[in-house]
Amino acid sequence: MSAPPDTVLEVDEAEAEAIRNAVRTADPLTLGYGRMLARPEHAAALAHFFADPRVSGAIYDLPRPFTAEVMNTWILESEALRQEGRRLLILTFDETAQLVGYSCITVWPERSAAELAGAIRADRQNEGQGGAGAIHSFGWVFDTLGVRMMGLTAAVDNVRSARLIDAAGFTRMGERDSVRPDGTVRRSLYWEMMAEDWKARWG
C-alpha cells in the first residue's frame, strides 16, 4: 500500500478541495500521446503487461496475481478513488493500440502530496524513454494537480530507479518500510521533492 510522505504540510480545506477537483478533472491526454484512464475493458491487457517480471518485478504495491479479474478490481477501485480526488490510474497505448506503459498517481489532498509509480514495456526500457517520461510526469503532477510535495520510493536494490530519481533532483530521506497489498514489507529507499524546488530546477 502507498503511504503518504514523511514530511507533513499544513493544508487548509480550500487547498485540499482544489487538489481533489484537479484529480477528478485531469485530462490524461495533457500528460502525453496515447494516455487514457484505465477502464474495465483494459483489464486483460493490463494483466498481460504486468505478467512480465521485467515490468512488474520492482513495483511493490501492485495487486497480485496478475489476472484480468484482479486487474478489473484494481481499475474499479482506482476509478472510485479518482472520483474522491485520490488516485489516477493512467495507461499509455502506442499507435497500434498496444499497452506500453502505466502510471499510478496516489494523492493525499489533505497533505498536498502525491506519489507516482509507473513502468514501461520491457522492450522500451533502457532507451532513455523512462527517464525523460518520468521527468515529464513529475512536472505534470505538480503543475496539473497542484500538490506541493511528492514522495517516491524504490527497492534498496533497484539501482536504475534510484539513479532516475536522483537525477530528477529528489532529496534522499533515508529508508522506510513499504507494505505490499498482501501485508508483507519491503525495505525501500525514500525521496521527497517540494514543488518550489522542482520549479527552481526544471522551470
TrEMBL record:
Pfam families noted in UniProt: Acetyltransf_3
UniProt domain N-acetyltransferase: residue ranges: 39-171
PANTHER family listed in its UniProt record: FAMILY ACETYLTRANSFERASE, PUTATIVE (AFU_ORTHOLOGUE AFUA_7G00850)-RELATED, RIBOSOMAL-PROTEIN-SERINE ACETYLTRANSFERASE
Identification of the protein by name: RimJ/RimL family protein N-acetyltransferase
Native source organism of the sequence: Caulobacter ginsengisoli
